[in-house]
Amino acid sequence: QVQLVESGGGLVLPGGSLRLSCAVSGFTSDYYAIGWFRLRQAPGTEREAVSCISGTAIRTYYADSVKGRFTISRDNAKNTVYLEMNSLKSEDTAVYYCAAAYYSDPNIFVCTRDGMDYWGKGTLVTVSS
Q1: Element (H, E) at 21
Q2: Which candidate, 22, 49, 24, 53, places its Cα nearest to that of 37?
Q3: What angle do CA 88, 81, 89 make, to 5 degrees?
Q4: CA end-to-end span of the chain
Q5: Taking phi first (over 0 means left), then psi (-120 to 50 degrees means alpha), and beta for anything else, what does residue 69 get?
Q6: How do the pLDDT tens digits run along the chain, 129 residues long?
């Protein structure tokens, strides 16, 4: 049974940092691209891609809004993917979800919501003073 479990969310001051973790189980993680998505708490918003990483960790993607502030990484030996978030802003407040998609080529991925096969339940990040 495929499972993704996020942790590490919480309340942080603007300019602060958090590290999110996504523990994956039920599949061989090397062949799964993992992505972080977020849903902001505002009417009409949709779950948006924040960052993705290929199975081999060779390729990464970052949304323009987080480039230079967030870093995605993975440790396949621990079946865990991380999202290091620095210089946090109030607009980063959202529920963050990790998701997985299988690729026969572990060096490729498409970082889109519709391209993901499995989802975690999310962890809330609140950036506020």
Answers
A1: strand 18-25
A2: 49
A3: 5
A4: 40
A5: alpha
A6: 889 999 999 999 999 999 999 999 988 778 899 999 999 988 888 999 999 999 999 999 999 999 999 999 999 999 999 999 999 999 999 999 999 999 988 888 999 999 999 999 999 999 999
